Amino acid sequence: STFDIKCGVEEMRDEVLEKVDTVTQNMETVTENMETVTKTMEKVTQNMETVGEQMRSIQQSMETLDKKVSSIQQNKDTEIKCQQHMVKLEEKIDGLKDLLERVVTNTDGSPSGLVIAGGYSDFKQPASGYSDPIHSVYVWNPDTGNSCQLPSVPKGFTSFSLDNVDGELVACNKKCIKFSENGRWEEIYTAQENRVYHSSFVTSEGLFLLGGCCRRAAGSSRATKTGELVLGDKTFSLKDETESACGVYVKKKMVLIGGGVVGSSTGVWAKSSVDAYTVSGQVTSLPSLNTPRVYHTCGWYQEGNDVIIVVAGGRNSRQDAQSSTEVFTLGGTQWTQVENTFPVADYGKRMAKIGNDLYLSGGSGVKYGTFNNIIRKFNKNTKKWDTIGNFPEERGSHAASHVELKKIRQHCSSVPLAVPVS
Predict the structure, then answer these.
(1) Considering the entire predicted model, what is its pTM?
(2) What is the DSSP string of 125-175?
(3) What is the rounded distance in angstroms from the CA atom of residue 292 to the CA atom of residue 316?
(4) pLDDT per residue as tens digits for the range 114-125
(5) Residue 152 burial by CB count (10 A; 0-12/13-18/19+): exposed, middle or buried?
């Protein structure tokens, strides 16, 4: 009926209205959620902008850091190049100094004379093997063959080294004395240890003393295992106890060659080791000698760009005197030994360098024998020693160096021409 239809329509309208209300409420909820999402997106956008600004700041910092690292690397490369250049420059300066030393002349026609000082002229038997030492000092002129006599070193001053330090003669054992302008030997330094038969080196920092023997009491002799700078506070340890070695200063290295280790009852054992020390005590090993040597002598000369080290005489581990000479080119791999380089095997000779030439003086041919007064010059072609003269008083285990003749002329008394003593 019409009434039923009307009632049905109204019910449907009410349901539709309820659904419309529900949809309206849902739409309001969606609208609120959209507003929340919009606000959240705005915050996210703001945060992204902040992150972007921070990233740009980090990028700028990275670029600045890269520039600083690049600058540091460039400075380091420049420093390395400067150091390499300085090394080359110092080598050239060393070469110029050596050249200057060779070309300087004086009124005597020779830049320097050979200085021979102290030592022993005979050994006593069968006691300790040591004689009363001699203290006289002679200067031999390689041009004329004449000698003159300087004032003697002080009594009791024995077993010393002798070096030309900045043009002045300096002798050292436990104490160091200098030959002064007034013609006297004056004490300038006391070493930290006894240094009988040490090795001395004139370096860019001053005079260094390496090794030597502390005492010779029976059964307790010990060699020294240190090096020290005269008139300085620098000391360092050596690889081994060493006495009666020899040494040369080349390429900023103190090259200590051979020498002995003192035993309680076996005497001095000869060594063949060759060690190069810096002035700070860093050490590197060079090729060993062919023959272990003690009481030997050494020197060096320049041949083109090569440094040639020469070792002569001495005694081996069996105490046999040697007539051989060993030659080594610095940077090489082995020594060359030349036999019979002087007529009689001997030890206690001393070598000195004048200009670019090596001179050998004195020595003894037997264990307890007389000494000689022969001066020999190294022949760079034959690698042997040519006899060229004599000095006034035979001796061995002495000290030798060089000095400008004009500096000592007024204090040096002429002596007769020496008679050979072999």
Answers:
(1) 0.73
(2) TTTTS-------EEEE-TTT--EEEEPPPPTT--S-EEEEETTEEEEESSE
(3) 5
(4) 999 999 886 554
(5) middle
